[in-house]
Design goal:
The protein is an alpha/beta fold. Helix content is 42%, strand content 13%. The protein is globular, with a radius of gyration of 19 Å. The strands form three sheets. Strands 8-1-9-10 form a four-stranded mixed beta sheet. Strands 2-3-4 form a three-stranded parallel beta sheet, covered by helices on one side.
């Protein structure tokens, strides 16, 4: 056993340069190493999932990210904005279906400010006290902070008081060179880190995603992971890492080749090995498909994320992967794991023996 493999199997922290060499490993060896590190971080053979719903309350967004196929564009996609009553009906349907988590998301909309965010959160909290509100994003919080002229600290504190429970990490790719090409109107890497820090100061949890395949180098993929690891070292409030590949169809990055399944599984395994301070890694069934997500459970992933009653952003790229509780339980069982319905804090709600 070479020194790097021994370090990995012993649970040691690896460097960025060591992580970069993992891309050259054969997939079976890398997946085994990833699963070994999963057992160190999460010894159980359980795989969790949550019943949730994303409510995209508008598609009018000033970010205009090149990888997004959802935001309103003249003569292509009609703009819309949901009334509060529409949001309530969607959350009501979620609760009636046994769901527990709602994600309110609208991007950087010129039509919504902090008062609108507060109103939506209060409306959901008052009508559905048992629904967990995991909503907005670091970029959205930064946007309404600048728009309102209030410090980000005050924005986060106010939304928490209104009933916001946590915020999705929505990291895209944490490499400023790529961000200037793919999403130049969003916050910088430092801006993302600051938002996570402010959430931590308010006792609020978040997560970290990774959208790869946007023209970044392998070194920059490790750079992204390094930002996440150092942020977690500092803040300790990232519950999960969720990687997914860019779906370039119908976007302004359609000239880029789609990513491969092998590339995805390598990202999962390397993410698990490098991110030694994050317990939960999600298998991205929504973008990668159920079969690849199932394989990811043997490469370091230990969670399947949400069943998702409704999803429209990825669907806009042409991908229409869907699932339900029955299929989720079946896929997890067939991976040799125990399916567990969980809440947003990763506490067990129901075990499927």
């Amino acid at each position: 056993m070479n020194s790097l493999k021994k370090k990995i199997y012993d649970g040691g922290r690896i460097s960025e340069q060591e992580a970069l060499t993992l891309f050259s490993w054969d997939l079976p060896d890398l997946a085994k190493a990833g699963d070994t590190r999963r057992k160190i971080a999460f010894p159980k053979e359980d795989v969790g999932f949550v019943i949730d719903r994303i409510v995209n309350f508008t598609n009018v967004c000033e970010a205009r990210c090149r990888f997004c196929a959802f935001h309103a564009r003249a003569d292509r996609i009609a703009p819309y904005a949901m009334a509060d009553d529409e949001i309530v009906e969607k959350v009501k349907a979620l609760e009636e279906a046994g769901g527990s988590q709602v994600m309110l998301q609208g991007g950087l909309s010129p039509d919504y400010g902090l008062d609108d965010f507060i109103r939506m959160v209060k409306t959901v909290r008052e009508r559905f006290p048992n629904i967990y509100i995991h909503s907005f994003s670091p970029a959205e919080l930064d946007y309404v902070s600048r728009k309102s002229g209030l410090p980000l600290e005050e924005v986060v504190e106010t939304l928490k008081q209104a009933g916001l429970d946590s915020v999705p990490g929505a990291s895209d790719i944490l490499v400023d060179r790529v961000r200037k090409i793919a999403c130049p109107n969003k916050i910088s890497v430092d801006g993302w880190r600051r938002a996570i820090r402010v959430l931590a100061e308010n006792g609020m949890k978040s997560s970290a995603t990774m959208t790869y395949g946007m023209g970044e180098t392998l070194e920059e993929r490790i750079e992204h992971l390094s930002v996440i690891r150092s942020t977690q070292d500092e803040c300790g409030n990232l519950r999960a890492f969720i990687p997914w590949s860019l779906s370039p169809a119908n976007t302004r990055m359609s000239d880029l080749p789609p990513s491969t399944g092998i590339a995805y599984l390598k990202i999962v395994a390397i993410g698990r090995i490098f991110l030694d301070n994050i317990v939960h890694i999600q298998a991205g069934w929504l973008t990668e498909g159920m079969q690849l997500a199932q394989i990811a459970l043997a490469a370091g992933a230990n969670d399947m994320g949400g069943v998702l009653m409704e999803e429209v952003v990825v669907k806009a790229t042409g991908i229409e992967t869907r699932t339900n509780v029955e299929q989720m339980v079946h896929v997890i069982r067939n991976a040799g794991k125990t399916p567990v319905l969980r809440d947003s804090a990763y506490n067990e709600v129901k075990r499927y023996a």
